[in-house]
# Entry
Amino acid sequence: MNTYKRLLSVSLAVVLIFSTCLSAAAITVDGLTSVWSEVVGDENASSVTPGRDDSEMRFCCLSGLTVKVGFTYGLSPDLSDGVEAEVKTSATLTFQKRNAVTLSHLKQDTTYYYAFSFDGKRGEIYSFKTGTDDAGFTALLVSDSQIGRSGDHRLDEVLIHDTAGWDETLRLAFENDPEISLILSAGDQTERGNVEKQYRAF
# Structure
């Protein structure tokens, strides 16, 4: 799994992340500045959320309106046993396409691997592990990350500053409790609800 699990590409109320998704060291403003174009240039950032019950997981990513998006999942880390899942699409307010997937009837206590594909080219492979009936979990409630609030939201330096602060907040939360498995976001993730760059930064 990547150093960072990408959290949101659209305004979702519930975000599921895993204990390995955050870096051990905080991102500095200087460090983030050096990779900023890559961070906000990722048009296909994806999210994963819990479903209606323990056997269901939901996934979502954005793409260009004409991009053909697929989704593969399986039990093998290289997805050699991959199965294609249905992708449901809809247009967004930022003139992109929302691509949503729901996986049902998942086995308990099992690691699954998955990847989106874009025009036939598979993206990075990620993983998640299902729980069991008797397994508890720790949730973290967050609010008002509001990327872009600390100054002129149109300026990259403001977004970089706010993103680094948000990263530090999450890092400290996981340092305090490494077993956090669910983040509930109460809202105001970004300063402007229709600015995609701010959501990518978040």
